[in-house]
Amino acid sequence: MDGYTLKVFFSSVMAGLLSGCATSVDDLLLHDNLAFRNINEQSLVSGDKKLDIQYLGVGGYLFQYGDDSIMTAPSFTNPGLINVSLPLPIEPDHALIDELLPVEAKQAEFILVGHAHYDHLMDVPYIMQQHMPTTIAVGSTTMTNIVTAVIADERLLDITDYAAEGQQPGRWIYNRHNTIRFMPIKSDHAPHFMGIKVMSGTYEDALTELPSTAYGWKEGQTYAYVIDFLDNQQQPIYRIHYQDAASNSPDGLMPVMNDTKAVDMTILCVAAFHQVDDYPEAILQQTQPNTIVLGHWEDFFNNNSFDNQNKPVKGVRMTNIDDFIQRVDAVKKVGARSILPTPFSFFINHIL
């Protein structure tokens, strides 16, 4: 079976498997807080900063720390299942992006890209062109080779040489004010179904135009991230471990750090968790966070819960979210809380 025939076969199988209804979440406790910055400004003392985190849907999060912010790659455009799986042409929905991108996100200094699939990267070039003219996108060689078709090279950072691998730590990347830093961790992406991974592959050379189908947005190397928020002495006071794709242990696990700072929050990916072993158990047993966020859980085919407010949020297809929650509850440390956030909700608001 040649490459094209194989792709068509996989596409047909995926379309058939995913064509059922999205998962109901009626019995799950959703976190739906659209209030922003609800801490009274008068409660702050000199030197205090607030950390606000907003879930943007799929793998996207906005982290605002005082006057500084970074973002993980958002996905507002949700092409229909048929267009994605056959594959047919897809493109970012400019009007929808214009409506849904939070005003606060436009100040983000970096966009952290975990991998280059369409549901993580396709909206990023337009966002950088139209809304974030100075923001830098960071990610794999494949990511930079895709986005360079429309974004200048100086606004793209290939993190291959920065990444932690195994227990070996990587290199920190700092924002301009040295209040936020992040370190990529070499990870992997779970198979999509039946042990089969689709839309894999890399681009070793720069593209001259953006991909026109979902299969053109190749995965590339997948990365997790450690994100630190720093005090005035540039010491970490809040640490997040972030993943936008489920992975087999030890991929994506924290390296051995050169400090004693514990992980405060772990952000997990629900989609395709059942396609890998020991997920999320291995990560939670290693990081032991106080807060666990369950992301990339909602159905993202031809659906956007913020845009279609009369439609209930549905869970990602072929995924037992309740089973994932039970597995989290079985290994989380005593007193830890887990959050299943609805798109655009805020789920943390701390004074640091």
Separate helix tally: 8
Radius of gyration: 19 Å
How many β-strands, per DSSP? Answer: 14
**Could you give a short account of the major beta sheet?**
7 strands, mixed
Mean pLDDT: 86
Helix content: 10-25%
Q: At CATH's second level, what is the architecture? A: 4-Layer Sandwich
Q: Please tell me the total number of domains.
A: 1
Which structural class should the secondary elements be placed in? alpha/beta
How would you describe what is shown here?
- By secondary structure, the protein is of the alpha/beta class.
- It has a single domain (3-351), classed as 4-Layer Sandwich (Metallo-beta-lactamase, Chain A), CATH 3.60.15.
- Helices cover 18% and strands 20% of the residues.
- The protein has eight helices and 14 strands.
- The protein has helices at 3-18, 81-85, 94-100, 118-121, 124-130, 141-147, 281-287, 321-331, and strands spanning 50-57, 60-65, 68-72, 110-112, 136-139, 156-158, 173-174, 180-186, 223-230, 236-242, 265-269, 291-295, 337-339, 346-351.
- A seven-stranded mixed beta sheet has the order 6-5-4-3-2-1-14, with helices on one face. Strands 7-8-9-10-11-12-13 form a seven-stranded mixed beta sheet, with helices on one face.
- Mean pLDDT is 86; it is low at 1-6, 15-20 and 37-46.
